[in-house]
Write the structure tokens for this entry.
Amino acid sequence: MSATTDAPSGPTTDATPMVQVDGLHKMFGDLHVLRGVDLEVPRGSVCVVLGPSGSGKSTLLRCVNELEEITGGRVHVDGELMGYREVTRNGRTRLNRLHPKVVARQRARIGMVFQRFNLFPHMTALENVMEAPVQVRGLRRSAARARATELLERVGLSDRAGHYPAQLSGGQQQRVAIARALAMDPELMLFDEPTSALDPELVGEVLAVMRDLARSGMTMMVVTHEIGFAREVADTVVFMDEGVIVERGTPEQVLGNPQHERTKGFLAHVL
């Protein structure tokens, strides 16, 4: 696929889904991880993705955020085709890969929180949150500091601003990571099992921040095994297995009255 330098653009409306995934395939060599996934996430909604290990959940998020190049299909975020430009010649449409700098600009609109916190160990919590707005967006340090201070207060860590990651608990580090993602003012937040590396007693403080984000109207895709969170916060629950979406619906439908035996078996195991 050839590169281009301009990102595709087009008008969006409130009716435009924040995330539109059409026929998404992803292969790693001979391993077919995603097998034609179709998914729509309306703006302002929370989509929780469940499934066993190896089902393709994390790969789906990484494809939405352009951390993995897709093998087939399309991913649109806020109406914009991610990672590619469609070019039609002689009645045939092909995808041309965008220049890496354009892809990076697209990705800057999306915040992502991983299992591991990936904080800079030599920077304080405040400095970790300030770094991307200064380095990527060119924000003045004084403005970045003010915004980082505000975000640390939002995640309940205003008294830890001067602490280094090694001085923070796992739950506190993950909350700094959430503040860091929010510092780029994303339109969409992706969470890839954000509590799986935490001790059980620290999970609640991270989920509380995520609940607050959901209440604020942030569009969120969340890969998690926290069924209680999904039941309480999700607008849509998606169950994946072997690279396909097996079942989707409201929490009441998927968690309360699953229709597929694979979903029933998974829920029986995690509950």
In short: The first helix runs from residue 57 to 64.
